């Protein structure tokens, strides 16, 4: 590390990026281009808490990008850099601001991380599992918010069904506040994958009850017993649950509301349902 006039050390990186070269453009593409994220198997982690949780849960990191101009890096940033034996790249503040999607202050650190693709059959489940399904989510922010709630209320996993939002979109990563790195987030093609998983679990002795959420549900959520294994289904933000999911559900519950609102948004409904499940299981 080099010493600044104030006596604090700056990291010394063998690679510096101060222009919009090919490597910078590749990193930048991970912000907005899902196809490139998927093909490369890479995404960006922005923010102190997401970075801390990624490190805490040993998420695979390819590179750590750090700001090379402006104020000296904080103790947090320098300690994190010193703790990881991965490629470290010094990046100009202007370019770090672009990668961090900041309009004022450039972030100290951004990680280039590898994506993971956990499979349903590899999930490690508690004795009464709780799996949260998001049916064709449109908004990456909503997906990340639901992941955060699922993690907060003790779910085993979140499953994205159909061609929906990408869990590794930066909006999803930020909205999860790092919970993406603390629990499995699985992507499957259709309801049939969940039904096959449920049947396989039943064969091995773990029953799973599929519970949908909808304003027209026949049972209020606090009247349903969530003590057993549960697959909680949250419908698409605009269209709700698909017909296939309605047919697959063992029960559809409603969340009683008042006021002028006609319904709750998907992540809000998910949070309320998850709280009720956690309350019953305490």
TrEMBL record:
<keyword id="KW-0489">Methyltransferase</keyword>
<keyword id="KW-0808">Transferase</keyword>
<dbReference type="GO" id="GO:0003723">
    <property type="term" value="F:RNA binding"/>
</dbReference>
<dbReference type="InterPro" id="IPR051259">
    <property type="entry name" value="rRNA_Methyltransferase"/>
</dbReference>
<dbReference type="GO" id="GO:0008173">
    <property type="term" value="F:RNA methyltransferase activity"/>
</dbReference>
<protein>
    <submittedName>
        <fullName>RNA methyltransferase, TrmH family</fullName>
    </submittedName>
</protein>
<dbReference type="InterPro" id="IPR029028">
    <property type="entry name" value="Alpha/beta_knot_MTases"/>
</dbReference>
<dbReference type="InterPro" id="IPR029026">
    <property type="entry name" value="tRNA_m1G_MTases_N"/>
</dbReference>
<feature type="domain" description="tRNA/rRNA methyltransferase SpoU type">
    <location>
        <begin position="130"/>
        <end position="275"/>
    </location>
</feature>
<dbReference type="Pfam" id="PF00588">
    <property type="entry name" value="SpoU_methylase"/>
</dbReference>
<dbReference type="InterPro" id="IPR054578">
    <property type="entry name" value="SpoU_sub_bind-like_N"/>
</dbReference>
<dbReference type="InterPro" id="IPR001537">
    <property type="entry name" value="SpoU_MeTrfase"/>
</dbReference>
<dbReference type="InterPro" id="IPR029064">
    <property type="entry name" value="Ribosomal_eL30-like_sf"/>
</dbReference>
<dbReference type="GO" id="GO:0006396">
    <property type="term" value="P:RNA processing"/>
</dbReference>
<dbReference type="Pfam" id="PF22655">
    <property type="entry name" value="SpoU_sub_bind_like"/>
</dbReference>
<dbReference type="GO" id="GO:0032259">
    <property type="term" value="P:methylation"/>
</dbReference>
<feature type="domain" description="SpoU L30e-like N-terminal">
    <location>
        <begin position="21"/>
        <end position="111"/>
    </location>
</feature>
